[in-house]
Structure formats: structure tokens, C-alpha cells
Amino acid sequence: MIGRVALALALASPPGKSASPEEIPPGGYYELGEVREREPNDGETNTLVGSILFPLGLLRAGAAVAILVTAAPGTCQERYGTGISDRSCQSLRTYGWVGIGYGGLMAVTGAAFLGIGLVQRSRHRTWKIRNGVTLAPLLRPSGGGLSLSIRF
Asked: DSSP 3-state assignment of 146?
């Protein structure tokens, strides 16, 4: 009986007006049915791919430059021996130019992935701070550690 009276009073009362940002209760709790913004991508995959491709591309381009230097027209037979033909030296130079192109493309692609991943990581960190999830170092005179703060 008391439950029916409480339900009738709740249904009969007028709906409340929405609160202004100053009137939101401490803790910033959401109303029923209110949706938070979606969590942005944390950028870990792009950062990982970029941090692998970028140095490998630089390494490949550097090795290709070394091949081009050693296979230069005047010094190729001197460095690789007199038994090597001019055609082999030309093939080494072609291999060097292809390596510079391939390594350069790898480095540029890796830098792009790395840049995108770092921007995504920055956006994710600001989202976490705005939405109350923080993990920070904790330093005190008596010791230190990690501080985890979650707001829901």
C-alpha cells in the first residue's frame, strides 16, 4: 500500500527542470539516460607501427647510400675486386637507388604513423583527465608510488 502511494506521488509530480552547470552536484554524476562522449583511440597501435617503421626505413636508406658509395663507377672494381664486371657494378647501383626509395618511403610512412599515434595519445590523455581517470606518480617524503583516481 505504501509503495503504491509513493509511486502515485512520483508519477503525479511535475518533471524537474535541468540544472545549470553551477547546480550540478559534486562528482559530476550523470542523469539516467545521459551519455558521455566516446573514448577516443589511445594511439598505441599507430605509435608502435611508426616507431618500428621509421628507424627501419632510415636504416634501409642508410645501407642503400653505403651501397651507392661503394659501387661508384670509379671505385667499384677497386672495392669489390677486379673479377667484378661493369654490369654487376651497375646492378649494385640500381639496387642502391631502389633501397634509397624503399627506405625513404618506409621512413616517411613510419613518421606519419608516429605523428598520428602521438596526436591520438595526446587526445586520449586529455579525455582521461576530463572524465576523471588519472594515473600519476605519487611522491611523498616517506616514499613514492602510483596514484590511481577514478571518477564515475
From this structure: strand
Cβ-based neighbour number of residue 71 at 10 Å: 22
- Residue 16 grid cell: 524537474
- 144 φ, ψ (degrees, to nearest 5): -150, 180
Instruction: Tell me how far CA of residue 106 lies from CA of 53, 63, 66, 125, in angstroms.
Output: 6, 13, 18, 28
Residue 79 cell numbers, joined: 672495392
Pull the grid cell for residue 44.
598505441
Scanning 1-152, the segments in alpha helix (DSSP H) are 2-12, 44-70, 76-80, 86-130
Q: Can you tell me the distance from the alpha carbon of 48 to that of 105, in angstroms, rounded to the nearest whole number?
A: 17
Nearest to 103 by CA among 65, 148, 74, 141: 65
pLDDT in tens, 12-52: 555 555 555 555 555 555 555 555 677 888 999 999 999 99
pTM of the model: 0.61
Give tens-digit pLDDT for 83-121: 888 888 899 999 999 999 999 999 999 999 999 999 999
Q: Which three cell numbers stand for residue 141?
A: 617524503
The CA R_g of the chain, rounded to the nearest whole Å, is 32
